[in-house]
Design a protein that fits this description.
Distance between the termini: 29 Å
Largest sheet: none
Helix content: 40-55%
Structural class: mainly alpha
Number of helices: 3
Oligomer: single chain
Radius of gyration: 17 Å
């Protein structure tokens, strides 16, 4: 399977660090400008993120007793 690029790994580690949204976009913009390895990865992340609708909660309309999935 394909391995993530160095730029993608840096972006993922930053996003997992628990940053605030406004800090996140400023830092990603700066990272995109100074690190060529991150340029395409940041563009890809921002494109995908812009196409995901925001939501406040998830509703499950049908759950079976046999489903033992745990959400934390």
């Amino acid at each position: 399977s394909a391995q993530p690029s160095r730029g993608t790994k840096k972006i993922a580690s930053y996003l997992l660090s628990g940053s605030r949204a406004e800090d996140e976009f400023e830092a990603l913009g700066n990272l995109r400008m100074v690190n060529r390895a991150c340029f395409k990865a940041v563009d890809s992340f921002l494109y995908v993120k812009s196409n995901i609708p925001q939501f406040e909660s998830i509703s499950f309309t049908e759950m079976k007793k046999s489903d033992r999935t745990s959400f934390t």
